[in-house]
From TrEMBL:
This is MAPEG family protein. InterPro entries: MAPEG-like_dom_sf, Membr-assoc_MAPEG. Its main location: membrane. GO terms for cellular component: membrane. It is found in: Membrane. The keyword Membrane applies. The keyword Nucleotide-binding does not apply. Gene3D superfamilies: Membrane associated eicosanoid/glutathione metabolism-like domain (1.20.120.550). The chain crosses the membrane at residues 7-26, 69-97, 118-138. It comes from the Bacteria. Keywords: Membrane, Transmembrane, Transmembrane helix. It comes from Neorhizobium alkalisoli. SUPFAM superfamilies: MAPEG domain-like.
Length: 140
């Protein structure tokens, strides 16, 4: 049963909120690095080297514009073609929750043992979303 709602947009909004949080955290950490003297404000002009205090946040923020772009494009395509259903909405939430968890691990301990499986959960959810879209288009 297809949905006639905008439920697919809420996971997308939640992911955008994560990106806004990461931008804020990056700014906070960069300011702290400048205040502590471990970085000069001038080095952010071309940003050729990120201070250690903000490096993990900077790297994670860049990650939010890689796989998530496929998620957002797929979610919009699923919505636009009326292919959304409870399963696609759950998959979208699985993706977003995995991104929050991945980001938390990335900017704290950065332990690949935990980070990689969280990434793979989001990756799998995105692959299944695109797979469902292909099936939907092929059979509609």
């Amino acid at each position: 049963m297809m949905t006639d709602t905008t439920a697919m947009f809420w996971p997308m909004i939640a992911h955008a909120a994560l990106v806004f949080i990461l931008y804020y955290l990056l700014s906070v950490r960069r300011v702290a690095a400048v205040k502590s003297g471990s970085a000069a404000a001038q080095q952010f002009k071309e940003n050729l080297s990120e201070p250690e205090e903000s490096l993990l946040v900077h790297n994670n923020l860049k990650n939010q514009f890689e796989l998530p772009m496929l998620f957002h494009a797929g979610a919009l395509a699923i919505y636009a073609t009326n292919a959304d259903n409870i399963i696609t909405i759950v998959l979208a939430w699985v993706f977003v929750i995995s991104r929050y968890a991945h980001s938390y691990v990335h900017i704290t301990s950065n332990r690949l043992r935990y980070r990689r499986p969280l990434f793979m959960i989001g990756f799998a959810a995105t692959v299944v979303l695109w797979g469902w879209l292909a099936v939907w288009l092929a059979t509609s």
